[in-house]
Design brief:
Strand 19 and strand 20 (506-507) form a beta hairpin. An eight-stranded mixed beta sheet has the order 6-10-11-18-17-16-15-14, with helices on both faces. It is α+β, with helices and mostly antiparallel strands and 517 residues long. It has 17 helices and 20 strands. The protein binds one RNA strand of 73 nucleotides through residues 9, 11-17, 72, 74-81, 83, 92, 94, 96-98, 112-113, 126-128, 130, 132, 146-160, 162, 171, 261, 263-264, 354-356, 486, 496-500, 502.
Length: 517
RNA sequence: GGGCCGUUAACUCAGUUGGUAGAGUAUAUCACUUUUAAUGAUAGAGUCGAUGGUUCGAGUCCAUCACGGCCCA
């Protein structure tokens, strides 16, 4: 038992648990048996028998075996009420000495809040009318050695909630609800795309050339091949190679990695949906996106109108605004057209707004900075902003009428980018030229600029059908649909610094049990 | 990277002008056969994030650092 608390000072609660555990062992009670089998989920009882009155319950005539964690315990001497939580629901269990015998009841009194119990019993209603399971037998399934946080206020400490998510999941119903919803959202998207004939694929997470986005990558190394590899910042270029290969509708939902700051909107690893659709153009993607997100919202939240941080967001198809990039600068950002068309005036306005202008930066990039300052925060209701400058869209198809802009859009909701999409550039000569521009920018010091990808150009030379493709940030979508203010609320194990203890060692799932002293 | 805020018992939080550390929950013991933040009584539980400094005396004031939160970059 000593090994249990090697990393902690023994507090009196822990000591008490150890004493109890020893007492149970003395009575030949296993602390961690795997012999109990439940036959019913608590939710099945709650939903199946909630309408029956006392007579109806008495007529059920069967026993139920359930298992779960004790979350509260009220003892009255010879009778005890406990609340038990399983993955499906929580319900009250009535434990009485006269129902199970003196010896069994004495043993039961050694069990604690936090223990996992297996209970077999029948149903009845208490005096206050609550549907309750009356225990006939109780077995200890798993002994808990650590006390759970206080039940009334719950776990408030964000650091513990994220570092010890398992505790958060036990005691914070909202947390488990968010992650159930997250699964439903992702499943809803899969079902939607599958039904439209999209094929889900998996492409490399470790790439020799990190492409498809503007971001700083994580670097790693393959020993056997003695080869530098990057964790992917996007799957884009691989998915488009699949269009060359003949797949016409593909998608991937998986992790991307970006070696950048951490904030309420950024985690170094995050989940992205990307999908590519041959013989479609970017406007088709707007239609699909509206329809898909509205359907998912309807299924998961029960409405296409959702509340986010006390704002009502209307995701009903048809209500999504579509506006060009330049129009949004004027109409929403209040920027004088002369100020964004003329390079010097644009640079001046960017500087006056407190942003830096890097030497050699192109007009499109300056316009994007104006957009970030004046427009993006105001896009609360869903907005598709289209026709982005070519300068900042190295993989997008140019507009037929104006080569300075591309057939690209971004989707904004609650002042945040939720999706990025465009008609794909499939001209290998144009693509090579844009890569070369990026390489120059990289050489000039922009470490977020794209790498040259010769194989991708070679693939385009074989011929990629015209297509439109899109990326949707799943974490941000989940934030929107679960009313979560921080991305850490929707990622089970967000990245945190190594936990430090007073002894100078580190512990926690983010690192080794004991770090360098 | 910058600014602001926080870190006190297992959890949630008080702590006044610098003068020996408090509550509720949880835990332990006792009472209690229908409670649901059960109740009543008693008890134990603290490296006040860490390290320095000022002071007769620091949870409190100052400095540095660590971790977290929010905002900005």
């Amino acid at each position: 038992m000593d090994a249990l608390s090697a990393r902690d000072e023994l507090n009196d609660v822990l000591k008490g648990r150890i004493d109890k555990a020893c007492a149970l062992l003395d009575e030949d009670v296993s602390l961690y048996p795997n012999t109990f089998r439940k036959d019913t989920d608590l939710a099945d009882i709650v939903s199946g028998y909630t309408d029956l009155d006392e007579e109806g319950l008495a007529a059920v005539g069967r026993m139920f075996s359930v298992a779960g964690r004790v979350t509260s315990l009220r003892s009255f001497g010879k009778v005890t009420f406990i609340k038990v939580l399983d993955a499906s629901a929580s319900m009250q269990i009535f434990v009485a000495r006269d129902e199970m015998g003196v010896e069994a009841y004495q043993l039961f009194k050694k069990y604690d809040i936090g223990d996992i119990l297996g209970i077999t019993g029948d149903l009845f209603r208490t005096r206050t009318g609550e549907l309750t399971l009356r225990a006939k037998t109780i077995v200890l399934v798993t002994k808990s050695m650590r006390p759970l946080p206080e039940k009334y206020h719950g776990l408030k400490d964000m650091e513990i909630r994220y570092r010890q998510r398992y505790v958060d999941l036990i005691v914070t119903p909202r947390t488990s609800e968010i992650f159930r919803k997250r699964t439903l959202i992702v499943r809803g998207i899969r079902n939607y795309l599958d039904a439209k004939g999209f094929l889900e694929v998996e492409t490399p997470m470790m790439q020799p050339i990190p492409g498809g986005a503007t971001a700083r990558p994580f670097e790693t190394h393959h020993n056997a091949l003695d080869m530098k590899l990057y964790m992917r910042i996007a799957p884009e270029l691989y998915l488009k190679r699949l269009l060359v290969g003949g797949f016409e509708k593909v998608y991937e939902i998986n992790r991307n990695f970006r070696n950048e700051g951490i904030s309420t909107r950024h985690n170094p690893e995050f989940t992205m949906l990307e999908f590519y659709w041959a013989y479609a153009e970017f406007t088709d993607l707007m239609d699909l996106t509206e329809d898909m997100i509205a359907k998912v919202a309807q299924d998961v939240c029960g409405s296409t109108v959702v509340t986010y941080q006390e704002m009502e967001i209307d995701l009903t198809p048809g209500k999504w605004t579509r506006m060009s990039f330049h129009e949004s600068l004027e109409k929403i950002g209040g920027v004088d057209p002369e100020d964004y068309r003329d390079y010097d005036r644009c640079a001046l306005l960017v500087k006056r707004s407190g942003e830096k202008v890097v030497k050699g930066e192109k007009l499109g990039k300056l316009q994007a900075k104006l957009f970030d300052i004046f427009v993006e925060p105001k896009l609360i209701q869903p907005h598709f902003i289209y026709h982005y400058p070519t300068d900042i869209s190295p993989l997008s198809r140019r507009n037929e009428d104006n080569p300075d802009i591309t057939d690209r859009f971004e989707l904004f909701v609650v002042g945040r980018e939720l999706a990025n999409a465009f008609s794909e550039l499939n001209d290998p000569v144009d693509q090579r030229g844009r890569f070369e521009d990026q390489v120059q920018e990289k050489a000039a010091g922009d470490d977020e600029a794209h790498f040259m990808d010769e194989d991708y150009v070679r693939a385009l030379e074989y011929g990629m059908p015209p297509a439109a493709g899109q990326g949707i940030g799943i974490d941000r979508l989940v934030m929107l649909l679960t009313d979560s203010p921080s991305i850490r609320e929707v990622i089970l194990f967000p990245l945190l610094r190594l936990e430090t203890t007073s002894g100078g060692t580190s512990s926690g799932p983010a690192g080794p049990a004991t770090g360098p002293a």
